[in-house]
């Protein structure tokens, strides 16, 4: 089963082969910002991301087309996902993993 990992910005860190980075500003990034940079808790931001993705209204950045469940399944199924959220904290990458692999 694919897993969520933490993207690092430290010297010498390398993305694991086959993993996909899902942070902003990628197509998979969460537009809902978590405090202190935004008004949401991590759980709220992940919940809003899930709601919009499943409804077909998720737009990760202005000017982009909505991200669809079919795209998530096609492009992310079977792959590990990397975000900057700490493991154990709610994250939109967990939402993507669930959607992509069910």
Describe it:
The chain starts with a strand and ends with a helix. The model has no long low-confidence stretch (mean pLDDT 95). It has a 3-stranded parallel beta sheet, with helices on one face. The chain has one domain (4-100). The protein is built from 3 helices and 3 strands; from the N terminus they run ββααβα. The protein has helices at 42-55, 69-76, 92-100, and strands at 4-6, 20-21, 81-83.
Notable characteristics:
3 helices, about 30% helix, single chain, alpha/beta, globular
Instruction: Report the major sheet.
Output: 3 strands, parallel
Report the portion of residues in β strands: 5-15%
Give the topology string: H per helix, E per strand.
EEHHEH
Overall mean pLDDT score?
95
How far is the first residue's CA from the last residue's CA? 11 Å
Derived structural class? alpha/beta
Query: In which range does the helix fraction lie?
Result: 25-40%
DSSP strand count: 3
């Amino acid at each position: 089963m694919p897993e969520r990992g933490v993207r690092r910005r430290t010297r010498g860190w390398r993305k694991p082969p086959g993993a996909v980075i899902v942070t902003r500003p990628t197509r998979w990034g969460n537009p809902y910002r978590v405090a202190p940079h935004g008004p949401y808790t991590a759980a709220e931001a992940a919940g809003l991301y899930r709601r919009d993705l499943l409804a077909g209204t998720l737009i990760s950045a202005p000017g982009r087309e909505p991200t669809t469940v079919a795209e998530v399944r096609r492009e992310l199924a079977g792959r590990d996902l990397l975000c900057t959220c700490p493991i154990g904290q709610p994250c939109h990458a967990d939402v993507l993993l669930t959607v992509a692999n069910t």
